[in-house]
Structure prediction request, 170 residues.
Amino acid sequence: MRSKFTKLGLDYDAKIIANLTGWIDADATLNLDLYIRQLITSSRTTVTVKYRVEDSLKYLTLLNYDIDTCKTLKELMQAGLVKVWFRNIRKYGNLSANCPIKPGYYNLRNLQLDSSSIPVFLRTGDYRIRVFNYNGNAKPNANQNPELYSHNKAKMRRGVTCITVDMKLY
Prediction:
């Protein structure tokens, strides 16, 4: 199966990220420029994959992963779908291979999904992938009131970057 990127949306916290720009080339490959302003000592990533319902504007969530980014980078050579995606992405740029993630310039050039990184259970169609990188706890620690956590969950997750990509599998 092949893929092509069709749309890109970017958002970032200007206190942590000095610049995040991106574009899709005529050959439907993805490019990103990222300049990190300050040291990132810990990070989590939520990856959401949605499938667009045929003849509709609605998307259904197929996969939703929340991972410890630093731990995943450390274990990059092990198996797992998210790790396969990380390895594929790192081939196209100079993204950090470990934590802490140092301030500096990072990029991706001509990113395309390798057919081996596309799960066999996905069918042809339109997809939306959202990659939300944040600082904060995914779960309350032992000293936090779980009730308080559930009401303030969004406040505990300080967004660093959010990259949303629409793509077509064919």
The chain is about 15% helix and 45% strand. The radius of gyration is 17 Å.
